[in-house]
Amino acid sequence: MNEKTTGELENLRDLIDGVDQQLLHLFRKRLDLVAQVGAVKHAAGVPIYAPQREAAMLAKRRQEAVNMNISPQLIEDVLRRLMRESYLNEKDVGFKQVKTDLGDIVIVGGQGQLGQLFTQMLTLSGYQVKIVDKDDWQIAPSLFKNAGMVLVTIPINVTCEVIRTQLNQLPQTCILADLTSIKEKPLLAMLEAHKGPVVGLHPMFGPDVGSLAKQVVVVCHGRDSHRYEWLLEQIKIWGARIVEAKAQKHDNAMQLVQAMRHFSTFVYGLNLCKEQADLDNLLQFSSPIYRLELAMVGRLFAQDPNLYADIIFAQEGSLNAISDYIDNYQSALSLLKAGDRQAFIEQFSQVSEWFGDFAPQFQSESRAMLQSVNDMKHD
């Protein structure tokens, strides 16, 4: 480049830097205003996530962007990222306490990651939280004595045993709840061990979410639901969405949503390991969608193997779901071995028709995710 071109570029880059500084100040101002909104909402007990308000605001900003000849997706991406940051900051203000006369909340397994998350959320809401872990059973009776709720979040393989042997002498008015990812057996164990209010909860997220805004908590009702309505309201205030389900229906879905998916991911990672695949080389030649898939595989193996062993081995029905998956895999493989391209196309079309309108919807949703993945790539 000649000296004139270099000078013009430097001048323009300085101007861009100035605009970036203005954007930073505007971002800071917006975050401060959102914090004030959060304080008002928390004082009134209004959920931090208002889907209708968010949708209306985004639609308005998108139209304004079009009027200014700006990509509407650009402004939506920026605003969604800002809102996510706002949700993370809002919890620092605290939350309104729905049930002010509850007594203590005792979390069994409170030292675990999910237990720590719920300890944080309940404490931010003004509740007195106490923890019982595996070495604390000698002091547990004294903690349970004044408990308004006992929340169980321990490994699946010991959940029912602990409920039956350690949680069968709780106060009659105490709520007994669990956070296990399977529901039918733990719910039955709680109903047998405790004569008071019982509810099964399944948070459909990991402990690293940061905020519960837009997250889902599945609720399987047990007994005396009017006694724990406040808990569901409290969870909504945190920003989560409540989905009610029968325990058996929930567990049947989990065989596909969790067990089969995690098992297939495990096998894929196992195959990469045994093939001694060069991950750096794979990333070098990966498309955004493969990078995202590989990231999800890697995410699994960055976590506790005991947790995923529990999820996969906990339900007898998981074996059937996984076996069906393997049978379908073998059937599809036979098409490849036979070179039957037309049969592959016919089955592909059959599955596409079964997905219906979900297929283009998922294509649209994944496009935004893939763009984000591509933005994060670096040399």
UniProtKB/TrEMBL annotation:
<keyword id="KW-0413">Isomerase</keyword>
<dbReference type="InterPro" id="IPR046826">
    <property type="entry name" value="PDH_N"/>
</dbReference>
<dbReference type="InterPro" id="IPR046825">
    <property type="entry name" value="PDH_C"/>
</dbReference>
<dbReference type="GO" id="GO:0008977">
    <property type="term" value="F:prephenate dehydrogenase (NAD+) activity"/>
</dbReference>
<keyword id="KW-0520">NAD</keyword>
<dbReference type="Pfam" id="PF20463">
    <property type="entry name" value="PDH_C"/>
</dbReference>
<feature type="domain" description="Prephenate/arogenate dehydrogenase">
    <location>
        <begin position="103"/>
        <end position="366"/>
    </location>
</feature>
<dbReference type="Pfam" id="PF02153">
    <property type="entry name" value="PDH_N"/>
</dbReference>
<keyword id="KW-0560">Oxidoreductase</keyword>
<keyword id="KW-0028">Amino-acid biosynthesis</keyword>
<protein>
    <recommendedName>
        <fullName>T-protein</fullName>
    </recommendedName>
</protein>
<dbReference type="InterPro" id="IPR008927">
    <property type="entry name" value="6-PGluconate_DH-like_C_sf"/>
</dbReference>
<feature type="domain" description="Chorismate mutase">
    <location>
        <begin position="3"/>
        <end position="94"/>
    </location>
</feature>
<dbReference type="InterPro" id="IPR002701">
    <property type="entry name" value="CM_II_prokaryot"/>
</dbReference>
<keyword id="KW-0827">Tyrosine biosynthesis</keyword>
<dbReference type="InterPro" id="IPR036291">
    <property type="entry name" value="NAD(P)-bd_dom_sf"/>
</dbReference>
<dbReference type="InterPro" id="IPR036979">
    <property type="entry name" value="CM_dom_sf"/>
</dbReference>
<dbReference type="InterPro" id="IPR011277">
    <property type="entry name" value="CM_T"/>
</dbReference>
<dbReference type="InterPro" id="IPR036263">
    <property type="entry name" value="Chorismate_II_sf"/>
</dbReference>
<dbReference type="InterPro" id="IPR050812">
    <property type="entry name" value="Preph/Arog_dehydrog"/>
</dbReference>
<keyword id="KW-0057">Aromatic amino acid biosynthesis</keyword>
<dbReference type="InterPro" id="IPR008244">
    <property type="entry name" value="Chor_mut/prephenate_DH_T"/>
</dbReference>
<keyword id="KW-0963">Cytoplasm</keyword>
<dbReference type="GO" id="GO:0004106">
    <property type="term" value="F:chorismate mutase activity"/>
</dbReference>
<dbReference type="InterPro" id="IPR003099">
    <property type="entry name" value="Prephen_DH"/>
</dbReference>
<dbReference type="Pfam" id="PF01817">
    <property type="entry name" value="CM_2"/>
</dbReference>
<comment type="pathway">
    <text>Amino-acid biosynthesis; L-tyrosine biosynthesis; (4-hydroxyphenyl)pyruvate from prephenate (NAD(+) route): step 1/1.</text>
</comment>
<comment type="pathway">
    <text>Metabolic intermediate biosynthesis; prephenate biosynthesis; prephenate from chorismate: step 1/1.</text>
</comment>
